[in-house]
């Protein structure tokens, strides 16, 4: 851990001094150099992730694909989403929109004598060991992410935004960041608040986000891979997560609307489809297992949303947009009930 951290810090320092810092001085941003140094860390992490995606995960898609690629235009849009998020452009937006508010809020708490909780100080000598604290933070953030993900699927207004992510019919390694920007803003704001509350150091927060994002890229890959009976219950696999994206299964739950009646008439229980689904875990399937939302069936279904393939009450299927801006605009229209 120490060697890896020193290696990363050295490259980050070189990137900052040779590229980011001169650019910031040229743009008249010398008063926020500290932020520029942090941004260079996010940029470096993003570049490393893209290298892994291109050199490792993408070839696996060609070796063991679930389905052939027939719509490359929509994948090019997904690549744009990935570049925006992994190269730090979205983080830059968060810095101006969210971070100042969070800093002011928690600064006011400290002035009032209210200190935040330091999770890595829970067990001195154990939880403050770097790799132990990193694992502990990963578990905590994954638990929070599970509930955020369930909220995205069970609250109608949030699903109107999050459904863009599920509207991809050609899921690939590039599909993870295909989200409405308002959806990402809500999720990342909650995670930033949690990070402040439990005292995550900036370097550890970057590492947690990097590990999570790279794992999610692999989960979305068009690969016929699973981790075996026990491995599936230790870490979210591409098969486990693909089921979460499956039409009519991953984002829907069947609930009874009439009690089952016994008798000779042969009546059976009737069901209605509601928001919900299965396999909400981001890294760990443990929370799905505990909350009984896990589905470990060995199947690779088509991905997408039911209203993309089945006409609604108006006789039409729903349009989620093709390009980046059309997808963002139609997501906003869904949020306000106009699409």
Detailed description of the structure:
The protein has 339 residues and is mostly helical. The chain has one domain. 58% of the residues lie in helices and 3% in strands. The chain is built from 14 helices and 2 strands. α6 crosses α9. About 2% of the residues have low confidence.
Briefly summarize what is shown.
This protein is mostly helical and 339 residues long.
Instruction: Trace the largest sheet across and list its strands.
Output: 1-2
- What is the number of strand segments? 2
Structural class: mainly alpha
Give the end-to-end Cα distance, rounded to a whole number of Å.
49 Å
- Please state roughly what percent of the residues sit in beta strands, choosing from under 5%, 5-15%, 15-25%, 25-35%, 35-45% or over 45%: under 5%
The geometry reads as: globular
The total of helices stands at: 14
Q: What average pLDDT do the residues reach?
A: 88
Largest sheet features: 2 strands, antiparallel
| Percentage of residues in helical conformation | 55-70%
What Rg is obtained from the alpha carbons, in whole angstroms? 22 Å
- The stretches of 5 or more residues where confidence is low (pLDDT under 50) are 261-266
Number of domains: 1
Task: Give the helices and strands as they follow along the chain.
Answer: HHHHHHHHHHHEEHHH
Q: Which oligomeric state applies?
A: single chain
């Amino acid at each position: 851990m120490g060697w890896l951290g020193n290696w990363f810090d050295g490259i980050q320092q070189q990137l900052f001094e040779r590229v980011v810092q001169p650019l910031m001085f040229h743009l008249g941003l010398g008063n926020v150099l500290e932020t520029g140094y942090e941004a260079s860390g996010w940029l470096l992490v993003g570049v490393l992730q893209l290298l892994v995606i291109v050199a490792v995960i993408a070839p696996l898609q060609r070796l063991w694909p679930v389905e052939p690629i027939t719509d490359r235009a929509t994948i090019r849009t997904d690549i744009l989403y990935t570049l925006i998020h992994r190269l730090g452009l979205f983080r830059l937006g968060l810095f101006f929109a969210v971070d100042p508010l969070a800093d002011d809020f928690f600064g006011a708490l400290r002035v009032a004598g209210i200190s935040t909780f330091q999770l890595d100080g829970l067990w001195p000598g154990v939880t403050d060991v770097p790799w132990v604290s990193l694992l502990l933070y990963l578990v905590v953030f994954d638990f929070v992410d599970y509930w955020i993900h369930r909220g995205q699927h069970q609250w109608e207004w949030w699903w109107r935004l999050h459904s863009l992510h599920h509207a991809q019919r050609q899921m690939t390694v590039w599909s993870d960041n295909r989200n409405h920007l308002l959806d990402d803003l809500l999720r990342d704001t909650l995670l930033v608040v949690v990070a402040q509350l439990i005292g995550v150091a900036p370097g550890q927060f970057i590492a947690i986000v990097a590990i999570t994002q790279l794992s999610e890229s692999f989960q979305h890959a068009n690969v016929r891979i699973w981790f075996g009976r026990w491995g599936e219950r230790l870490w979210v696999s591409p098969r486990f997560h693909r089921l979460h994206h499956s039409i009519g299964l991953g984002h829907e739950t069947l609930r009874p609307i009439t009690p089952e009646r016994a008798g000779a008439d042969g009546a059976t229980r009737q069901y209605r489809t509601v928001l919900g689904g299965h396999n909400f875990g981001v890294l760990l399937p443990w929370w799905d297992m505990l909350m009984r939302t896990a589905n470990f069936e060995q199947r690779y279904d088509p991905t997408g949303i039911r209203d993309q393939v089945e006409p609604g009450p108006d006789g039409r299927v729903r349009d989620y947009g093709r390009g980046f801006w059309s997808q963002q605009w139609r997501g906003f229209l869904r949020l306000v009930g106009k699409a």
